[in-house]
């Protein structure tokens, strides 16, 4: 006997409630506490790890700043010989990193340079202390500045006896010859906890010049611990390797006087800390035996009074800071509410079980009633009594779909006869559609004999059904239709597939017309071929148009062939012209190379001997006129040699034969060298020269000699065309988007747009009222532009008459090489080709 749906539903609902209540009780009494304790430990681990990361992130900028300052000092970018630049650099570092208390440099001769925060003269201000030594003489100068680097005070301290060489950070850095960190200590002036990092500065021979150091106040770490939310009443603290508390939510509790008579302060030891819970947490770690060699996170549990606490101890990751962070939380912060709610959960589970049983009973009734009604309808249909069936309604989709299926089945039986009548009428409609179709239609028997044609076929060919009935369709095909096409048609349709193609049909008037044909088999009820149907469309006019188009295309192909032959002849002529031009270019190159040697040899002699005469190396000249002549000869020879060199360089670039010897180029050094060469000329013309170079520029991958040539050409032009009292400014910047930007700006005579165009032409000379008295070869700017382009760069000129000229050079960022890379990565190498 099969079970009923009623018994299955009742037993299933009761069993489900039992399993549900049991699961809830099991979870409440067995698993919840362990899971929450696991989550609590995970939270404490995450808080410890996050605190360590934040503390190390807080301290890391000091190491970066000390390392950068050390490198800049090693390369003489920063030097005590240039106190203004060093003071400005230290000032910017303090503005950039608010956690820095001060930054300083002490040299091995006892001199000292120190910038620290000081609010004595201005809120958010700074104080600079400079100790200079000259033998036994010692000078201490104090300067105060506001937050915008404006000086607010200056004084001399005659009683200061500070010597950096006696300080622990100086001695430790000298002893290790490497970057070092001191143990945390209380700063004497600010009376705040802090730490110092220091690094030695070496000269090019490896001798120590001094030590650079950074002071960091670590009070912010205590502030961060105070803001931590660990449970309801959890707390945290940080110990150093001497068990001193260096960070605590209440920062005042970690400072104690060194002695009763001293004003100095020291850190509170953990055993002295005014916090019973923190002391107990540390004692629990001591009992575990891992205090001195803690390599990973350590969990402990301890009791204070009647309260149980959980603690986690984790070492810092960086060996520079051998510290331990401790976090302790009372157990009831996580489990208190769970213990209070255990009984409530039991009652809640029982209430849910009762409600679920009531809902299950209602569910059983809503399912059983429509199923019983469906059973009654099924019995009525079985007996053939279709009219006694009743509609069944249910809120469940499956039952409702079953009821609707019963109703559709009864309706289908009643409508069977009506549907047969409708089918017959549909066949009549289809027959009328074929009769009235504008397309010619042929229907044949399975043997291929014509059985039916519609009126459109009669209109197309002139044949009536009586004239073609029983004929084979191939008897209506034109004489020019290939027999192969007919065989292909028969092969396709007899295999049960559809054939599409074009055939010539013969009309009753014995004319041939083109038709697009579609022939397909019509299968009978058993799936076999019963008839064939063919549909024909008159395409005679289209075929005639295609023939005309083919004739036109043939004629066009003849014309294209003729034009192609002409183009080939033109290309051959151009190729011969290019070969002649290339031959002329080679002749020019050989001529320039030969003339270079022939001209440079006597020119070097002329320049050399004229310089000997000009300097009177073998005795004074009898007449001052001879001195003028010797100077003129030397200047003219030098000018002519420069003209030859520029001409050869320009020719080499145009011929694509300029060889670039590319390497890492320090733009600051190259610009300084170029400025030194032009400075005498500027001073003689009373023109002020200024350089503004971004610090920390990356290297430029380029030919250093050509870059220097570019800067000399542009600076020389700027000084030459700037009147007395004017200025020339060289600025170099870099950013990731625009790459290197070099600007040379003068307050000279300037040019208009036409003048700029002329100046960029070979041997171009700008002539106007301002340029009179200025001579040149006319090759400097064109050659400079070619050299810039050879380095993938661009050169732009902006100028105005009587105002001045600004020349801007851009080199792409792909040519940048990181300044501290020892080797050039392959992907950053740039070819001059």
Task: Give the count of helical stretches.
Answer: 17
For the secondary structure, the number of strands is 29
Q: Describe the largest sheet.
A: 9 strands, antiparallel
Rg from Cα? 51 Å
> Structural class given helices, strands, pairing?
alpha+beta
- Euclidean distance between termini CA atoms: 95 Å
Keywords:
single chain, 833 residues, alpha+beta, five-stranded antiparallel sheet, 17 helices
Task: Draw up the topology in text.
Elements: H1 5-74, H2 83-96, E1 100-107, E2 112-117, E3 126-134, E4 137-145, E5 151-156, H3 168-176, E6 180-181, E7 185-186, E8 193-202, E9 208-217, H4 219-227, E10 235-239, E11 245-247, E12 255-257, E13 265-267, H5 276-288, E14 298-304, E15 307-315, E16 324-330, H6 332-340, H7 342-382, H8 397-436, E17 440-445, E18 450-453, H9 455-461, H10 465-468, H11 483-494, E19 499-506, E20 512-523, E21 529-538, H12 540-615, H13 624-654, E22 662-665, H14 667-684, E23 688-693, E24 699-703, H15 704-720, E25 727-735, E26 739-746, H16 753-759, H17 780-790, E27 794-800, E28 804-811, E29 816-817
Parallel strand pairs: 23-25
Antiparallel strand pairs: 1-2, 1-9, 2-3, 3-4, 4-5, 6-8, 7-8, 8-9, 10-11, 10-16, 12-13, 14-15, 15-16, 17-18, 17-21, 19-20, 20-21, 22-24, 24-29, 25-26, 26-28, 27-28
């Amino acid at each position: 006997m099969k079970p009923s749906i009623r018994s299955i539903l009742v037993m299933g609902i009761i069993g489900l409630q039992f399993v549900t209540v049991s699961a809830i009780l099991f979870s409440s009494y067995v698993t919840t506490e362990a899971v929450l304790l696991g989550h609590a430990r995970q939270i404490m681990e995450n808080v410890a790890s996050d605190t360590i990361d934040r503390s190390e992130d807080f301290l890391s900028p000091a190491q970066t700043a000390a390392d950068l300052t050390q490198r800049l000092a090693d390369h003489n970018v920063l030097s005590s010989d240039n106190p203004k630049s060093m003071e400005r650099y230290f000032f910017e570092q303090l503005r950039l990193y608010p956690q820095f208390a001060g930054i300083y440099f002490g040299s091995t001769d006892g001199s000292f340079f120190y910038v620290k925060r000081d609010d004595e003269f201005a809120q958010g201000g700074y104080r600079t202390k400079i100790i200079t030594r000259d033998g036994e003489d010692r000078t201490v100068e104090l300067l105060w500045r506001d937050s915008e680097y404006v000086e607010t005070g200056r004084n001399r301290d005659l009683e200061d006896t500070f010597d950096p060489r006696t300080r622990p950070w100086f001695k430790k850095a000298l002893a290790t010859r490497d970057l070092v960190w001191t143990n945390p200590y209380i700063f004497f002036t600010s009376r705040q906890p802090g730490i110092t990092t220091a690094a030695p500065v070496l000269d090019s021979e490896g001798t120590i010049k001094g030590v650079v150091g950074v002071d960091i106040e670590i009070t912010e770490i205590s502030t961060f611990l105070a803001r931590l939310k660990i449970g309801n009443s959890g707390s945290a603290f940080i110990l150093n390797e001497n068990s001193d508390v260096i960070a605590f939510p209440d920062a005042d509790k970690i400072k104690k006087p060194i002695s009763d008579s001293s004003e100095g302060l020291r850190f509170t030891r953990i055993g002295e800390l005014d916090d019973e819970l923190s002391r107990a947490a540390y004692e629990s770690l001591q009992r575990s035996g891992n205090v001195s060699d803690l390599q990973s996170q350590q969990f402990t549990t301890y009791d204070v009074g009647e309260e149980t606490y959980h603690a986690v101890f984790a070492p810092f990751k960086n060996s520079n800071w051998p510290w331990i962070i401790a976090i302790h939380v009372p157990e009831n912060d996580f489990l208190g509410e769970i213990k209070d709610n255990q009984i409530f959960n039991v009652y809640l589970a029982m209430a849910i079980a009762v409600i679920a049983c009531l809902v299950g009973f209602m569910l059983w009734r809503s399912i059983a009633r429509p199923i019983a009604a469906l059973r009654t309808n099924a019995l009525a249909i079985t007996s053939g009594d279709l009219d006694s069936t009743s509609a069944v309604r249910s809120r469940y989709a499956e039952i409702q779909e079953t009821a609707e299926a019963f109703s559709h089945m009864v309706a289908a039986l009643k409508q069977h006869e009506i549907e047969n009548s409708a089918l017959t009428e549909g066949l009549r409609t289809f027959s009328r559609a074929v009769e009235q179709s504008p397309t010619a239609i042929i229907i044949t028997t399975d043997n291929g004999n014509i059985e039916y044609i519609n009126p459109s076929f009669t209109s197309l060919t002139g044949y009536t059904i009586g004239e073609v009935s029983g004929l084979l369709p191939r008897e209506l095909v034109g004489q020019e239709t290939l027999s192969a096409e007919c065989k292909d048609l028969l092969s396709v349709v007899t295999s049960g597939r559809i054939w599409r193609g074009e055939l010539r049909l013969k009309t009753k008037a014995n004319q041939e017309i083109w038709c697009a044909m579609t022939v397909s088999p019509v299968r009978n009820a058993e799936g076999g071929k019963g008839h064939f149907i063919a549909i024909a469309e008159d395409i005679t006019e289209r075929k005639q148009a295609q023939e005309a188009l083919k004739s036109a295309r043939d004629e066009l192909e003849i014309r294209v062939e003729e034009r192609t032959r002409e183009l080939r002849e033109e290309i051959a002529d151009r190729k011969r012209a290019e070969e002649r031009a290339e031959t002329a270019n080679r002749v020019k190159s050989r001529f320039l190379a030969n003339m270079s040697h022939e001209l440079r040899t006597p020119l070097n002699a002329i320049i050399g001997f004229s310089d000997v005469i000009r300097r009177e190396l073998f005795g004074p000249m009898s007449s001052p006129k001879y001195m003028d002549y010797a100077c003129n000869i030397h200047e003219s020879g030098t000018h002519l040699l420069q003209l030859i060199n520029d001409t050869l360089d320009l020719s080499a670039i145009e011929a694509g034969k300029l060889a670039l010897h590319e390497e890492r180029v320090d733009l600051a050094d190259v610009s300084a060298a170029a400025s030194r060469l032009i400075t005498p000329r500027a001073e003689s013309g009373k023109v002020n020269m200024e350089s503004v170079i971004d610090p920390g520029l990356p290297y430029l991958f380029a030919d250093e000699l050509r870059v220097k040539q570019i800067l000399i050409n542009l600076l020389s032009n700027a000084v030459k065309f700037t009147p007395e009292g004017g200025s020339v400014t060289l600025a170099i910047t870099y950013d990731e988007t625009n790459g290197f930007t070099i600007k040379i700006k003068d307050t000279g005579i300037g040019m208009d747009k036409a003048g700029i165009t002329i100046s960029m032409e070979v041997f171009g000379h700008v002539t106007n009222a301002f340029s009179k008295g200025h001579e040149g070869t006319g090759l400097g700017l064109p050659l400079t532009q070619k050299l810039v382009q050879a380095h993938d760069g661009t050169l732009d000129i902006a100028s105005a008459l009587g105002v001045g000229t600004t020349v801007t050079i851009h080199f792409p960022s792909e040519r940048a090489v990181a300044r501290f890379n020892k080797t050039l990565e392959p992907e950053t190498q740039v070819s001059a080709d």
